[in-house]
Amino acid sequence: MEKIKEQFSSLQIAKRCALTEDPTYLLDLDISRGEGSHLVAVSCSNKSIGVYNRETLDLLREYSSHPGLLSGVRFAHAREGVLFSACSDGAVKCWDTRLATAEPVQVFCGYPSNIFISFDISCNDLIICAGTEKVKEDAFIAFWDARGCTSSASSSEGPLGVYSESHNDDVTKICFHPTKPNLVVSGSTDGLVNVFDINKDNEDDALISTCNSDSSVSFIGWAGKDCRQVYCMTHDEGFCWWDLTQLESDEPITLLHIPDARDVVGADNAKLDYLIGGFYHEKLGKLFVVGGTSTGSLCFMDCCADGLNFVGALQGGHSATVRSFYWNVEDNSLLTGGEDAQLLLWKPGAVEKVFGKKTSMKAASSVRQRVRVHQNYFKSKKK
Hints:
Blueprint: H1 2-9, E1 11-16, E2 26-31, E3 39-44, E4 49-53, E5 59-63, E6 70-75, E7 82-87, E8 91-96, E9 106-109, E10 116-121, E11 127-132, E12 141-145, E13 155-157, E14 161-163, E15 171-176, E16 183-188, E17 192-197, H2 203-206, E18 207-212, E19 217-223, E20 229-234, E21 239-243, E22 254-258, H3 261-266, E23 274-281, E24 286-292, E25 298-304, E26 307-314, E27 322-328, E28 333-338, E29 343-348
Parallel strand pairs: 9-13
Antiparallel strand pairs: 1-29, 2-3, 3-4, 4-5, 6-7, 7-8, 8-9, 10-11, 11-12, 12-14, 15-16, 16-17, 17-18, 19-20, 20-21, 21-22, 23-24, 24-25, 25-26, 27-28, 28-29
């Protein structure tokens, strides 16, 4: 634990992206993978995607042909420069960042009523999965064959199929297993976190486990040895952690259930206003949770059976709520994006050589991310 505390405490701002005058939230980010990969993609509240050099944060590409709100960006795992995005217009788009064109090379279309608010791609780049907002009585998880994504010509593909019975409200998060392409977990405003084996012939057989967070799910991920655990965060700052290895035993699968993480971490004299997400550090065998404050500070917590323990904080970077992060365990660097329209690169012992901290650019509710949350899941938030 001391080692990870040292890593966090040594992080300093190495680079900031070029700032714009538009009050744009940076909602989600992902980095390209593989030897020599150097890209980071950011989805923005102004319906654009920015692709940056990961070391210099220079803007390399910008894609803006999104009529609806974006629900995330993901790079392919093995195909250099191939990027995916999902949009509320009912499509998942594939971009080839190596090309000069600003048009998608492939469009994966849903059904006419679909409004996609979450998605992911399997670790072998074969299957795309996206979750929809509830329309009338329907909330879907749709699947496509991603092998048609090619830079030779732009074309459209319809879904291979959908799951329609496992959630009864907005499917807010989708996350494939990092090494097993047949496993995917979904989270919803109905409070359920479902684990599926998509190799099965039908939805009933595919559903391996249903876990109840008792709230509206805002983030999900895999953790533990061989990633046999799942965890989630909720829109009212709750945290849940389950062990799937206990499914075949009489032991409870719930490892931790915290209704409001702000109460727990606040007891450690660490300010916390919200949760952002988590990541499993394979080398350390530890699950970490990341949160923040409304003024832009970041809070890192270690997750164990006893609860969430404060590890460290980063201050002086963002001036408003942080929406997304990516922790790179290879070089212990950190990328963060927030409501102050800034993309920051943090590195151990770095010295920033650019402009100082920018004042908040937080805008009115017109640029808020589109997520409907059922109010009956909420307690009154503590001030």
